[in-house]
Amino acid sequence: MDATIEWLGWTTFRIKVNGLVIFLDTWLDRPEGMPKVLDIGDVTEADYIFISHAHFDHLPGADKIAIKTGAHVIANGEAINALRSAGVPEDQLIPVAGGERIPLFTLKTRRAAARGEVGIVPGPPGTPARPDPSLAAASVHVWPSLHCLLPGSSPADLPEVMDTGKEYIGGASQYACTLDITFMLKHGLLKLSDHMPREAMDEGMRSFVDWIDSPASKCSSPFDGGQLMFNFLFGEGKTVLWNGHLGMYDGILKTLQPQPDILIQAIAGRGNLNGRPFDGSAAQFAVKLSKLLGEPKKVIWCMHEDQPVSPRRLVLAPATEAMEKETSSKVTTLQLGALDRLF
């Protein structure tokens, strides 16, 4: 059976490959006005859930899917703590920070290991049974990454439209970094209902505030917990790197092996290079990232759809044009909710 990928909105994808069902982020239950292509209640199978970071537009839903399907969740410590508080069983939670290499097994193989029907790796007393790596259907290498930054020094400075071709030079301050994102979320975006009267909001913003104030958003944190990227090894010529924000440590990407055949890359925001604002456009940042990775054959964008708060819209064309003009990478545009071949 051909490997498939579905873009389910924002940075959320479902991949089916080598007998595995894999979710990349799980933001399926979203504010009214944003497209919903898969009801979280309709998800009946998942072997693994990978979470890029712990924010409200990436982590929510992982708890419900994991509890329902028995999927293992691989995420940073902040996300794992939120999932634990939401009731996900401890033996389904795999905390990582970057540098880990993990064999991936079908749920059927994991359950066979728990019953003692297949070989397992040794461990201390009480350790959940882990299948022998020879039974793995694939593997993943986990690497540290970075959340994007935003232009300006406050939410009031955010444009209605982010253009991936617009260059930003210099920082709002000498200390501009992801801590600004944490404070903006904790004291601003996640408390919009405290800062703005409802009658001053348009319909889109009201829908966002209603969602943020609802139980659906609570399995998350204003602290990203440490952005992660995941390099999946599905077979010869079938390596897929998912980087769920416009950030990178160039020292990691220069030496990352195996280099990906496919790059799934978030394209919103201002680039974050080694913890500092990138001087240039999102398009230029993405080109630099592709070149560091050896110019993957295929690039798939994410995080580029409209949203109910600023920046409400993203101009994607400059990033696609720059990628295909300045590298050998070719951009594949996925339609929301459509089933596509991965390779």
TrEMBL record:
Coiled-coil blocks: none
Name the Pfam families for this protein: Lactamase_B_3 (PF13483)
| Cited InterPro entries | RibonucZ/Hydroxyglut_hydro, UPF0173_UPF0282_UlaG_hydrolase
Q: What name is this protein filed under?
A: Metallo-beta-lactamase domain-containing protein
- What species is given as this protein's source? Gibberella intermedia
